[in-house]
Amino acid sequence: MRLWLWAATLLVAIFMSNRSLSCVPTCGKQYDTPRGLQIHKASCKVANAPDDDLLRLQQRLAEKRDRPRKRRRLEEPVPSVPDLNSPAPQDDDVAMTFDDLILPNSEPVIQVDQPPIPPIELGRGRRTKRPTWKILERLPQVALPVLDDPQLPEPPLPAPDIESTPAIVWRTFRTTLNAFGIFREYRTTGAPPSHHPDVSLDTNDLSIHPDPSIIPPTTSRCSLAPLGGNTTILPQPSTPDDSPTSTTTLPSSDSPTSTLATPSHAPFANISVWRLMNWMWSGSEKKSGEECNKLVHEVILSPDFKPSDLEGFDVKRETLKLDLHLERDARDGWKESNVVIEVPDGKRHDLDFPDDPPIPTFPVPGLLHRSLVEVIKSVWSDPSASRFHFTPFRQFWQRDKNSGVERIHDELYSSDAFLQAHEDLQRSKPEEGCTLERVVCGLMFWSDSTHLTSFGDASLWPTYLFFGNQSKYVRGRPTSGACHHVAYIPKLPDTFHDFFVNLTKHGPSADILTHCRRELMQGVWRLLLDADFRHAYVHGIAIKCADGVLRRVFPRIFTYAADYPEKVLLATIRNLGACLCPRCIVPKSKVSELGMKRDEQQRTTGARTDSNRFRSAVQTARRAIYKLGMTVKSKSVELLLAAESWVPTCNAFSEFAQSVAAEVLPYEFNFFTMLVPDLMHEFELGVWKAVFTHLIRMLVAVGNNAIQEFNLRYRQMPTFGRFTIRRKGGNTSALKKLAARDYEDYLQCALPVFEGLFPDTGHGKAVMNLLFTLADWHACAKLRMHTDSTLHLLKSATTSLGSQLRSFAKKICTSYDTRELAGEEAARARRRIKAKQAGKAVKDGVQGKKTKKLNLSTYKLHALGDYLISIIFFGTTDSYSTQPGELEHRRVKRFYARTNKNKAQKQIARLQRREEEMRKQGQKKRVYKNLEKKHIKEHHHISPSRNFPSYLPSWLAANPADPALKDFYPKLKDHLLGRLMDPDCADTDTTYSNAQRLELVIDGNRIYRHKTLRVNYTTYDVRRGQDSMKPSNHADVMIPAFDIDPETGESASGHPYIYARIIGIFHASVLRRIPGQYPTIKSMQFLLVRWFRLDTSYHGGFDARRLHRLELLPETDPNAFGFLNPDDVIRGSHIIPGFAYGRVDDESLFYSNVWRYYYVNFFVDRDMYMRYRGLGVGHAFIKAPTYGHPEEDDIEDDSEDEGEIPTGEAEEDVEVAADGGEEDEEEDEEETAADKEGEDVEDVDGPGEDDDDDDANGENEQLLEELEGYDTL
User: Which residue windows does the record flag with biased composition (Low complexity) (predicted)?
Assistant: First the structure.
């Protein structure tokens, strides 16, 4: 071969040396060397002139190619492979020299090793090809500017929800439709909105995983005044006699302000000291290698850092200087107060009789809190508030011209609650002589207690404040500084017991402790909702906002996120009483009627309101306790309060609402509505955890190694994403040390795990249906962006879930002897020991494992029916989820590790203040760099590295047995040629002849391997996400079907996606030699994949309530392996093995670890769920795939069922002992509830009867009609 190459090269050289080189005939110039001719042609006008004949020829060829034609007939058939197409590569083209064109040293080698392949006849005719996914997908886009003319023609809209008042002239302004069909509607009383915070957003801001090093520069015209700067006091309206005068301090126009060019270093001498102190008081409490890198790169290597500035530096002195500076500017700083509570001692205290002693009080020390008004002032004047939304709007979506307009529900500032508060504010009487723009400040509170250490009893009960004017995507990031600490709630101290003994000569009972804890919580909020806040609530606060405009800001309370025990304290209702819910008075015996029509009616008619009857009953009960000396649970008190689970404690929010009600009309504040549902505690750690635990009990009862197989399947579960699905080690059935995210993972992957574990076919089918409905409801309820269509889905899923749960509890669970798990039995024993040590009466418990039933009479199940109206009224659930607060707990735990553990709460408050101030100073001092794309806008990213080359002849020769490399070279050339010849299309079914393949040259006969493919995609909520795939991990991808119609989103084959498993990631430098054209080298990326095929004999999809089933093409199939254009990858896919069918048993297979079937997990995340629903706003339209319909007996309907609804057994009193501490979030509902309030859990009322579920198969009415009556919110 080498001799042949040498001879050929010599002949070509001799031929060229004896031949003069000429330009085109019309030019006539001749040259002796190719280099000379090349230089001449670069400037020859004759040679570069357009060739009319060539243009006409190209036009005729294009017309011929576009005409419909029959199948191309080549000479002999060869195995065909799926080929894909892509747009032109993004790499810069590199010109190739003439010598390289003459002597392609790689081509003859391949032609000798690989015998020529004759042409074939194509398998199908020519058809219209779809563009690649890279072309179909659109980048996220923010809302377009507001139209100045409100009278411009607009798309048809649904009727507005809030009627305007005749006295107010409303003007409606709308934005134009953006690329996704999204537009906004603003209602104002005058000019268009004065502030558009979303205009400055870029792709990095819309990314799910933004680059943390990119800090967008502030567009604010004002920034925080330097510490100790001059201030100006604005005049405020006259204040009532019973409230202190409220003043507003603003930065004066002539005071020095901090800018990026001249930052303020106060209280530090220079920026070098600030950088070092910022490193010291931020980040980890344990300075690790990562912290050391941070010190080097963010401090020492910073261009403004000067080592000479640190002469004489002492960290204690600088810290003391910072603390003193914060104390001088302590308007929004921490204060310590005592909370005074009234203690019932069982004696008469009638003030009309002088002999009666006064009501005893006890001061609870240690409340650390901040002024809400000062926090609002500080935040709203901060540069970070430049992206606050001051004017609410409705957001709509119109998919195309032929589609209707749907309302979008996502943020609080685009919700009905915010719009109603805004319009009520505009209707109210303005301040006398004030012409400032009036805006609503949306307050969103969160509180929960947490352990500060893994061992010991150190704990903290923080209260956090978020602002609803800020995007939830910012509030959800712990590093954004959007969470503001406003209070650290103390516990009832041990000294209270001594106080009570001295007062009554006996210790406090459980009822007394419970009552005092309620009084403590309400006393804390009376201090927070002080006179200054009431004045601001009525008259507003004049604040110069971050954009430099002076506005009057009116705070309004919208949501309070907390778990059930916290809601009980805030709503002042009895824990697990006759009426469990803090939002309605549905009795406990009816809470299992989830999804029934009468359940909706009961929620509407029985909604809790802050009525005179409620306040009067509480005041009467308090007079009986404090003045007449009755006990907290005396018969008279119970007769007044027990029917609706009221308690004899005055509600601070109710008192606040009454104090401002007359002055804020027409706005009304019903504090019960602020207690929004909590998906994490109520579903993931509530309903789903209870069902999952009971399914494990059922598997234990089944025996036959069912529980061992269950544990094995979860251990074999493939991971997905960065943290979406995590590796499950150990035995899942032990349920040890699990958080909410673990239960979420178990639900998302449950269907393949439980398949086939129950020997009874009917029971197994019912369990699979229930698991699918649970996963469907969870995915729909957790969406970050809802439309009218998805709200219909949520309502339907809620009805189906309630029906299936009742049927499952009555028909399936009763067939199994389910008993406590080993962990439950051990926990019960520990609780008994703990109760005995505390000196409590302990009943004789059941020896061995107790019988366990699935309890449906719980608040957490009842709460699932409130999600629909909460989303409509307050926005999606992630806006008021408890998860951001749980993440903020990590911060206070980090603070605690830096304290000396002596009066840790004060030290935590001081550390929080330091970090917050350093963050604000850092925003002003940061030298902002230009936004780096970081490949976010690109469809995908593969490294251009050439560190791992593969020389094709040697590589193919070294792996002759690998079926993936069979016909590798001709398939690769066909794939690359198809992409070069038709770069805008996704697929080509052409197998090229040897002559055509010779036109393609792979530079050096080398391809370059890569480890990672990163694919960026636009999510359903118009954000930018990213999936990372490797051949060794997360290797499965999804692409659009080749026959999908981009206009209709329909696929002729019925399923719009194709699935593949990545075997290798490569790129190569190639050129195509075309006569008459100058060749260029292009870098082309490609994937070597193994294809899946859809099992069409299996019914999958939402109608069938099953996942879609796949199988890998057999190795012997000629189409099993092929090449894929990375431009056509939508994103990664979570493909789970079909564990019930086992692996393929064939020792001759090269790839042995292959399962017989696989399942497409479209519940893996919310974006994947919406791709199969086909309703994503940010998705290119693809019609949702459906295969078959569920059989009639698969649809669980309890309309004809009679009997008792299982309520579970009453727990022993010892199991809910009131410790006053904080339990882990994994504890049962009864335990956590009693833990905070200190009240014994009452036994579940008698079993209720399951009446006809008359709406299980009824006709679906319109959503607005079904929600009629919820106006009480």
Answer: 234-263
Residues sharing a CB contact under 8 Å with residue 56, sequence separation 6 or more, in sequence order = none
Does an H or E element contain 1038, and which?
Answer: strand 1036-1040
Amino acid at 95: A
Let me know: does 415 contact 394? Beta carbons within 8 Å: no
Claim to verify: residue 954 and residue 1054 sit in the same structural domain: yes
Average pLDDT of the residues of the chain: 78
Check whether residue 549 and residue 698 sit in a common domain.
Answer: no
Q: Is residue 165 domain-resident?
A: no
| Domain region containing 285 | 271-328
The phi, psi pair for 233, rounded to 5°, reads -100, 120
Could you give the number of structural domains in the chain? Answer: 5
| Domain end position, chosen among 1173, 1205, 1227 | 1173
Neighbours of 414 (CB within 10 A): 19
Whole-angstrom distance, CA of residue 1228 vs CA of residue 1207: 15
Q: Under the phi-then-psi rule, with left for phi > 0, alpha for psi from -120 to 50, and beta for the rest, what region is 60?
A: alpha
HEC string for 807-841: HHHHHHHHHCCCECCHHHHHHHHHHHHHHHHCCCC
Contact criterion met (CB below 8 Å) for 140 and 936: no
H or E, element range at 598? helix 597-605
Tokens 């009570």 sit at which residue?
A: 500
Strand 437-447 to strand 550-561: parallel, antiparallel, or no bridges (unpaired)?
A: parallel
Of 760, 758, 732, 762, nearest in space to 747 by CA? 732
DSSP 865: G
Contact, 570 vs 686, CB < 8 A? no
1159-1183 pLDDT, tens digit per residue, is 999 999 999 999 999 999 999 878 7
- Output the pTM of the full model: 0.78
State the Cα–Cα distance between residues 1266 and 1273, nearest whole angstrom: 15
1057 in Cβ contact with 1134 (< 8 Å):
no
Residues 904 and 994 in one domain: no
Residues 964 and 1090 in one domain: yes
Q: What are phi and psi of 971, to 5 degrees?
A: -65, -40
Please indicate, yes or no, if residue 1130 is contained in any of the structural domains: yes
Residue 699 has which token pair? 């598997």
- Identify any residues that bridge with 550 across adjacent strands, giving them in sequence order: 544
Residues in contact with 279: Cβ distance below 8 Å, sequence separation at least 6, in sequence order: 291, 294, 295, 298, 299
**Taking the mean position of all CA atoms in its chain, how far away is CA 738?**
20
- Is residue 1006 in a domain? yes
* Local confidence band at 342 (pLDDT 50, 70, 90 cut-offs): very high
Structure tokens at 1111: 């199988």
Cα 549 to Cα 572: distance, rounded to the nearest angstrom: 41
Q: How far apart are CA 182 and CA 515, in angstroms?
A: 51
Mean pLDDT of 218-243: 33
Strands of 492-629, DSSP E: 541-544, 550-561
Residue 854 has, within 13 A of its CA and on its CB side, a CA count of: 30
Q: Are residues 277 and 344 in the same domain?
A: no
Residues 896 and 958 in one domain: no
Find the Cα–Cα–Cα–Cα dihedral 1037, 1041, 1042, 1048, rounded to 10°.
Answer: -140
CB 1039 within 8 A of CB 133: yes
SS3 content of the chain, % helix, strand, coil (to 5): 40, 15, 45
Evaluate if residue 1256 carries a pLDDT over 70: no
In a domain, 63, yes or no: no
Nearest partner of 1007 among 929, 949, 934, 924, judged by Cα:
949
Same domain assignment for residues 1038 and 1016: yes
By C-alpha distance, which of 1000, 1131, 1041, 1089 is closest to 81? 1089
β-strands 1057-1072, 1036-1040 pairing: antiparallel
Distance separating alpha carbons of residues 554 and 537, to the nearest angstrom:
6
Ramachandran bin of 1203, using left for φ above 0, alpha for ψ from -120 to 50, beta for the remaining angles:
left
Stretch 168-172: mean pLDDT: 76
Q: How far apart are CA 771 and CA 1242, in angstroms?
A: 31
Report residue 1264 as tokens.
């607005």
